Amino acid sequence: MKVVPLKKQSKKEQRKYHARLRRDWNGMKPTTRVVKSKKVYDRKKLSKPDTNE
Q: Which residues contact 6 (CB under 8 A, 6 or more apart)?
């Protein structure tokens, strides 16, 4: 099997190669890793009673 350099491959093959590299997050969900800003108004945070007795 001959190895063709990435730059010489067709655009379609280059896209397949890059898509394969991007695909796997190893079970981690990237959307859950976002930290919310402290400055944003959060109605849910205000409605919870503080029960640390």
A: 14, 17
